[in-house]
Amino acid sequence: MVAVSVGVPVYNGADRLRASLQCLRDQTFTDFEVLVFDNDSTDETGDIAREFAEQDSRFHYVRQTENVGPFINFIDALDAAQGKYFFWRAHDDLSDLNYIEVLHKLLDDNPQAYLAASRVFNTNSDGSETFTFPVPDASASTRVGRIRKMLFRAHPSWVYALWRREAITKIIHETHEAYPFPWASDHLMLFSPIIDDALVTTDETTFTQLTRDRPSRARALTTEMIPARRAYLARCRSETALRDFSFIERLQMHFLIRQHTSDRCYGLRKIGRRLLHEMVHGRPANPEA
C-alpha cells in the first residue's frame, strides 16, 4: 500500500495540467500514487496524463466514458485511492515541493488528527494579484473558543489538503447526502475536523491555488437559498450532537452554528433582501448577477 494517494479530477485542463503533475512528480516525498481522472476531456488532457503514466509508474490515467459531472469525478478519484492518506489536486494548482513530506509528517506525529493543512497562496493567471493566507492563530482558553476561531478563519481550499483517507471518504459521502448543494460544501466538509480538534496546520509549506477570472455567478433564488441554509444548519447540528459537549458548550455551539451558517452559507438578512427583490421585481427565469 502506498502512503499517499493524490486524486487529480480534471476536465479540459491541458493548459496547466503538465505543470501541476510535474509539481507532484518532483515532490521530496516519493511514496505516493497519482490518479488522474479525466472527465471525458476534448482537449490534450489525456495525452499529457498518459505521458506521465508511461514515464512514471506512480501515475495512473483513467478516462471517464462520458462526462459524469465534477462531483462524481472527484468521488471516483477518491474511491480508487489505495493510500493511507489522500488529497485532491486541481489541474491548475501547485505547492511547494516539500508539501507532501511536511503534511505527511504532521499527520504521523498527530494520530488524533485526520486533516493536515498549510498556508495558502492565491494568485491569478498572470500573477498580477496575489494573496497569502498564513495559518491562523486558533489559540483560546476554551474548547468552543478554539472552534469559533477556526470555523471563521479556515481557508476553504483546505479541502484540498492532506486527509486520512478513511475520514474524508466518510465525510464527503455523508456531507453530500445531507447537503446536495455545491455552494459552501467545502466549508461544511471542514466542519467535522474543526469541531473534533482533528485539524493540524503548518506554515512550513505552501499550497498555491490559481484563482481564475470567471463570469459573474448567477444569483441564487430564495427557493435555493432557504433549503441550502436549512440543510447546512441540520448537518452542523447533527455532527455536533454526536460529540461529547457539555450542556453549556452545546448552548454555545447552538448560537455559533447559526452564525457560522450565515457567514459561510446564506444569512437570513441576505435571504430577506433577495426575497424582497423577488417580490418587487419578480423572480427571473434565468437570474444573473
Give the strand tally: 9
Give the integer mean of the pLDDT values. 93
Low-pLDDT residue spans = none
SSE pattern, N- to C-terminal: EHEHEHEEHEEHEHHEHHH
Percent helix, as a range, is 40-55%
Secondary structural class: alpha/beta
What kind of oligomer do you see?
single chain
Q: Which word captures the global form?
A: globular
Number of helices: 10
* Gyration radius from CA atoms, angstroms: 20 Å
Distance between the termini: 48 Å
| Strand composition percent | 15-25%
What composes the largest sheet? 9 strands, mixed
What does this structure look like?
With 289 residues, this protein is α/β, with parallel strands linked by helices. 45% of the residues lie in helices and 18% in strands. Strands 1, 2, 3, 4, 5, 6, 7, 8 and 9 form a nine-stranded mixed beta sheet that branches.
SSE topology sketch:
Blueprint: E1 4-10, H1 17-25, E2 32-38, H2 45-55, E3 59-63, H3 70-79, E4 85-88, E5 94-95, H4 99-109, E6 115-123, E7 130-133, H5 143-153, E8 162-164, H6 165-178, H7 185-195, E9 199-210, H8 222-241, H9 247-264, H10 268-281
Helix pairs in contact: 5-7, 5-9, 6-7, 7-8, 8-9
